[in-house]
Design brief:
Length: 197
Amino acid sequence: MTLNELSNLDPTSYGTWPLPVKLACCVVLLAVVLVAFWYFAVQGKRDELATVRKQEIELKQSFELKQTEAANLPLLKEQLAQIEESFGDLLKQLPDKAEIESLLIDISQKGLTAGLEFKLFKPGSISESEFYAELPIQIEVLGSYHQFGDFISGISSLPRIVTTHDIKIVSGGDAKYSMVLIAKTYRAIIEEEETDG
């Protein structure tokens, strides 16, 4: 069949076309249908499949994480109970408002027991943060190095939390030294709110 014969084919009378032309048209039409099917049906499903596979991986990771957390739940509950107990013990070491006065007396008593001579013992103003209030105490004492050590050791052995800051020791003459420091004690604000409420 020549090109001239192909150009003379009547598109309205498909049945009169030669068999090889009919087969060629069917193959081309089938190829167009397959490409259209692939493009519109299969390709869209492939994108959807890729999205679902990505979600599957994320869900597996989430499941594994939750499974690990669930397996460790009794241990985590036990740790939480221990932390709450430790926190409660630490709160007990913070004096409340009523105990501040007796704590100040205990601090000065530790200095006197160590044999120190007080030049200054001045509680400052209380500064509050989110969870605790801080009371600084300016202290100046005269004594020897050993007495200073006994005093600091005595403060650290108190049942309430007292920290020492900005310690300066200078020679005062006559084999005595002067020690200036700031002792700080803390009060839990959480505890106050519970007792006030």
